[in-house]
Backbone:
């Protein structure tokens, strides 16, 4: 049976044996090659001395291609089903580099192993019920994580946090189905053994569970994409310098000519609590220059989509101006920031009276940067909530779609039930649909296209 991700089960019901380099190719201390499948032992055995190994015993071995020694390596054999994939797995940890792992791979392929497709090991783990598909996605998320927040969310998901929530909801729905079963079987009876109110209550509690999950969408989006933090203000007030200072490296061009930054430049910062997508913009002022005007339009668009805006100016007037313009464009929190605090200035208006929490920073001396960083994180937490280890967040569109469609079905059921507008048999169809949406989500009935979507973005060797 073949699919575009390759042969999983041959006609005898076994699996073909796959091999992949689990580490990145190139100069490195170690490289790991991993084999999985029915012939893993036989194939590894042809190239490894001593052999056989006891399962899960680490052993320093020599790896050969015929009589030529390729390397010394630590080899571990995991016997099925006690392995990551659920199949026989052999892991060879050798020296890294451009040649050694490739030569070992080549030898194993000559003996009958097939090079694995992206995500194929994890896919086999799912097909052998070692993990569910939501946990498999978490593995992909962990590898792709670019921030500690994403790492934390993925670990919770890998531990089964999200799967457990979804199972809980699914059990609630199954419970509802059995509650109304009597009504379905005996529609003529006025008062069945289960009161209508009891069904309504159960439906409401299932809805509440789904809503709780859906309420994590904004946090999930921030975890995945980063909180969009835009630095806005008039030209030449020091936005690009602040961007670079917050980044700790020179990314945006800094010059003394007003209106130099004509494009939007962004960078992802792995901050303590949140990943932050910091965006440097062109100045927010009227301009005759066409190119510069384009930059201003870009910054307006980014300001309106921001999770938080740093409105800066190098004089009290320009801070007030920036806060004024920005506040018209966004409902996100706006932090007033006075830049170039190292310069001595005669401030005719007192900013603190207008903005008690104004932050003074100098990109030149580094003054106030730490305060600004921590204020950014505090504001984001206050507005969008905290990422906690106790509750999973929805970070994938697939999850959001599954939960949303389950919710829509339960809502329709609840409404029909309250209004007695549909016969119980018809109302029950919504429960079935909701249940199926969740089963699809956790892969209780993994369809090929779901597997396809999830694993196509994985890296080879995982
Ligand atoms: N003294 C001082 N000058 C600064 C500071 N930040 C920026 N500048 C200067 O202000 C000018 C404009 O800076 P830039 O970051 O390009 O401003 P932007 O147009 O808002 O992006 C440059 O000459 C910078 O060297 C600062 O903290 N202190
Ligand atoms: Mg600039």
Residues:
């Amino acid at each position: 049976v073949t699919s575009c991700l390759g042969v999983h089960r041959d006609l005898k019901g076994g699996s073909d044996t796959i091999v992949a380099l689990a580490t990145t190719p190139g100069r490195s201390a170690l490289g790991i090659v991993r084999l999985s499948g029915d012939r893993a032992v036989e194939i590894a055995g042809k190239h490894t001395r001593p052999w056989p190994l006891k399962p899960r015993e680490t052993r320093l071995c020599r790896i050969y291609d015929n009589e030529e020694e390729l390397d010394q390596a630590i080899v571990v054999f995991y016997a099925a089903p006690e392995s990551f994939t659920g199949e026989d797995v052999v892991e060879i940890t050798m020296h890294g580099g451009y040649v050694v792992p490739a030569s070992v791979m080549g030898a194993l392929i000559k003996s009958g192993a097939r090079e694995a497709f992206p995500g194929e090991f994890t896919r086999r783990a799912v097909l052998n019920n070692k993990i569910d598909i939501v946990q498999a996605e978490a593995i992909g998320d962990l590898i792709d994580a670019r921030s500690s927040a994403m790492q934390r969310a993925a670990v919770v998901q890998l531990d089964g946090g999200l799967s457990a929530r979804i199972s809980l909801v699914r059990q609630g729905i199954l419970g509802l189905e059995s509650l109304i079963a009597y009504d379905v079987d005996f529609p003529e009876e006025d008062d069945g053994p289960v009161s209508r109110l009891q069904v309504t209550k159960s439906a409401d509690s299932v809805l509440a569970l789904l809503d709780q999950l859906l309420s994590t969408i904004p946090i999930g989006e921030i975890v995945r994409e980063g909180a969009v933090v835009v630095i806005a203000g008039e030209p030449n007030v020091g936005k690009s310098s602040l961007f670079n200072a917050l980044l700790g490296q020179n990314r945006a061009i800094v010059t003394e000519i007003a209106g130099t930054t004509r494009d939007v430049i962004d960078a992802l910062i792995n901050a303590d609590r949140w990943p932050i997508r910091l965006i440097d913009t062109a100045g927010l002022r009227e301009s005759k220059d066409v190119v510069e005007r384009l930059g201003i339009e870009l910054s307006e668009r980014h300001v309106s989509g921001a999770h938080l805006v740093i409105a800066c100016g190098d004089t009290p007037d320009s801070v007030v101006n920036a806060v004024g313009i920005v506040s018209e464009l966004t409902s996100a929190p706006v932090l007033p920031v006075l830049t170039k605090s190292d310069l001595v200035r005669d401030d005719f208006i007192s900013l603190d009276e207008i903005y008690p929490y104004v932050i003074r920073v100098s990109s030149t001396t580094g003054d106030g940067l730490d305060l600004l960083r921590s204020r950014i994180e505090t504001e984001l937490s206050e507005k969008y909530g905290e990422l906690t280890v106790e509750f999973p967040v929805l970070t994938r569109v697939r999850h959001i779609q599954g939960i949303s469609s389950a919710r829509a079905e339960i809502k329709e059921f609840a409404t029909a039930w309250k209004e007695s507008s549909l016969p119980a048999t018809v109302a029950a169809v919504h429960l079935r649909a909701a249940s199926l949406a969740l089963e699809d989500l956790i892969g209780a009935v993994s369809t090929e296209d779901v597997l396809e979507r999830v694993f196509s973005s994985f890296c080879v060797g995982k």
In short: The two ends are 22 Å apart (CA to CA). Residues 239-240, 260-261 surround magnesium ion (ligand 2) (CB under 6 Å). The longest strand covers residues 26-36.
